[in-house]
Structure formats: C-alpha cells, structure tokens
Design goal:
With about 160 residues, the protein is mainly alpha-helical. The protein has one domain. The chain has seven helices and three strands. It has helices at about 10-15, 25-30, 40-50, 55-60, 65-70, 75-85, 110-155; strands at about 90, 95-100, 100-105. Strand 1 and strand 2 form a beta hairpin. Helix 3 packs across helix 4.
C-alpha cells in the first residue's frame, strides 16, 4: 500500500479490517523497502471483490450512466481493464493474459471469452444491486402508504 501512495495511517485503517491483523505484522510489512513489497492496488481490489462483490462494485466508479450508457469500445474496455488489469500485460506490442496459472500470448478466442465473462459478471452484479435497491424503495413506499392510511383511520 505504501507503493500505491497510501500513508501509514490509511494503510493501517484498511489493514485492521482483516481478521488476522496484528500491529506487529502491519509494522513488519510497512517498514519494508518499496522494492520488497508485493501488495499493489490490484491485490487490494482483488481481495475487496472476493470479500464482498456487491460493496466492491458500489465503490467502483462505474455508475449507472457509465455502465448502461457508455457502450463504446473504450467504455467497455475500461471496465475490463479495471476488473482484469492484474491479469493483463501489454509488452513489446503484444498482449499477454494470465490464465490457468500461466501467461498466454494474445489469443483472440480466449480474450473474447474472458472479456465477455468479465463484462457479464459486472453487469449482472450491478443489475442485482439496482434490483435490490428498487425492491427496498418499493417496500419503503408501501410501508409509508400503510402508515399514512393507518393515521387517517386513527384520527377519524
């Protein structure tokens, strides 16, 4: 986290959310030279998504307008890079993808499949979040109507 520009207090606050956090373990890691630190923003993103996918997608800057109105190659490509960036390397004019524990030179069929799966997962998760929010709003509106009717009858 140090190599990503976090200060010690920010890094400690995030690290303390882990079940196995200790001050000693944090300080041992924090005091390492930047070259010895293997944790990057990609690592943090991965564990955040594994920990709670819905909350992860809520804090990503996709937004409804981005996800449903930016169907350009650039817009969709940015989502793929945000989600799969740790598994993609562009080097010497070639794209490499980390797949099944090895780096594979660009394979159009594999890329299309992985990118489609990635976008499907993002869209499905965002749709699930939006659906839950809509259901919750509808339930709250129904509850409010019931309470208003109840007040009307109780004042008569």
């Amino acid at each position: 986290m140090k190599s990503e520009g976090f200060n010690e207090e920010q890094a400690k606050q995030i690290s303390q959310k882990a079940n196995n956090y200790t001050d000693e373990g944090f300080m041992n890691t924090w005091n390492k030279n930047k070259g010895e630190i293997t944790i990057t923003q990609g690592t943090l993103n991965l564990y955040a998504k594994l920990s709670n996918a819905e909350e992860y997608y809520k804090i990503q800057d996709y937004g409804i307008n981005k996800i449903f109105n930016d169907y350009t190659d650039e817009g969709l490509g940015q989502i793929v890079v945000n989600e799969m960036g740790q598994d993609l390397i562009y080097q010497d004019g070639e794209l490499y993808i980390y797949y099944n524990d090895s780096w594979i030179k660009n394979n159009d069929v594999l890329c299309k499949s992985l990118f489609t799966d990635c976008l499907r997962n993002v869209f499905n998760t965002i749709l699930s979040i939006l659906t839950k929010e809509k259901v919750k709003r509808t339930e709250e509106e129904q509850q409010e109507k019931i309470e208003n009717k109840s007040k009307e009858y109780s004042t008569d």
